[in-house]
Amino acid sequence: MSLARFILGLAALAASGACSTLGGDIATQLNTPGLAGARWGMLVTTMDGREIVSIRPDERFVPASNTKMFTIAAAFEQLKNLDVPDPSAGASIRLEPHEGGGPPDLVIVGGGDAALIDADDCENDCLHTLADMVVENGVTHVQDVIGDDRLFPDQRWAPGWGVDDIQVRAGEPVSALVINSNELTLHISPGPAAGTPALATWRQGDDFFRIENDATTVEGDKESVRIERRPGADTVRVYGTIGVNVKPLTIPIAVEDPALTGAWRIKQLLEQRGVKVDGQIRARHRPMATSDLPDVRTEAPPPLDWAGVEIARLTPPPLIDDIRFTSKQSQNLHAEVLLRRLGRINGAGSIEDGLAVVKAMLVEANANPATYDFLDGSGLSIYNRTTPRMVVAFLRWAAKQNWGAAWRDVMPVGGVDGTLARRFKGTALEGKVFAKTGTLNGVNSLSGFLVAKSGQTLVFSVFANDRPASSESAIGPMDTALLSIAAAN
């Protein structure tokens, strides 16, 4: 054996021993008494693939919102001109002949823009702008007002979403017509004295559901207010207690039929502007068909039939703005709308069409199909699975693509912004972690890139699954472990 090979062999043994020691230290840090029962998976490598820490790297884990990384990466790979406004994605207004004659029906058509806002202080991509356009076109009298979200098939919730999620912000229903992220705002305040009912009111303009208020005011500064919106019901029930000294609560409530709520919202704005509405509000959906399923369809989906004449259209901001918001804030609805927009590239805009685009990208990245399952685009589904090794390999592959730097730039930054704004603050990794968070019941995850003490970039993926409901959060030990890894490299 040559001297050079002998020295290299000693170096490799030393590196292996250091890696083993570090891995043992990290495993100890993760397995804290307060997280007994949690199952950990971790892989940390250099950019060229040298393993630094490996803990169950090939076991399958629920990734939670780490799923969004793949949806957003597919958007960067497949959608062009992300920084250019796309009028075709904006909401529009059409007038259609009303069956039976008389004034026309007015239809608000969703174009797949997730950022449309209905608020008095809105300055860009505003619903009231559409209402103004209607009036400017001389419309003074209509029959029915219809919300149309047929651009995507009617798949408001993905497989594996919980019934508790679909009542609140986490599981807002997905639609081609999105206004205010498909949520209503409920304000709850203590009554004037203990023993009186709590005060529950809608934000102005959000009173689509009735309120059944069973919440009461008690002494002190504690609250245990709960919300119940049963599927199909037109009532939101508020119950529990709120202390007389508690500050007012603001609670987002998911709508159930975005197209119907959209019709209701535009009707209010039109009537405020003097437009007479004789008829009712209605919704127009596109039921799922085999043509929406890429694995079984035998012919292209039929084209949509847009009746009547378009009289108004909004141009939303560039899609990159919403992608950045979706990634930084981990917004589920916006990720799901993005997945369906991907599904419109070669299909009909279904969940399955969007996932086919994501899977095609993963094939290109040489990901083993046995190492992942994705049932949605946001990570809310409890059926999603992946392995730390698959995620790290994908991160390394994506970083080498011509869109890789832009993709990394929309990730939350440790101690700086998004869902990592409060994590790593004041540590050696502040401003040096670029990663996607993930949280579900019993699940914490974090995957991305970090800059180690030496200045080299490391790639990592760490999951905590099966965390008991009574245990502490896994975020603290997770971040401590990454800090230790960065300091040792």
Descriptive notes:
The protein is α+β, with helices and mostly antiparallel strands and 489 residues long. The protein is built from ten helices and 20 strands. The strands form six sheets. Strands 2-1-20-19-18 form a five-stranded antiparallel sheet, sandwiched between helices. A hairpin with a 2-residue loop joins β18 and β19. α2 (67-78) crosses α6, α2 (67-78) crosses α7 and α5 (319-329) packs across α6 (332-343). It starts with a helix and ends with a helix. Residues 6-18 have low confidence and may be disordered.
Major sheet details = 5 strands, antiparallel
Q: Give the overall form.
A: globular
Strand order of the largest sheet: 2-1-20-19-18
* Oligomeric category: single chain
Helix content: 25-40%
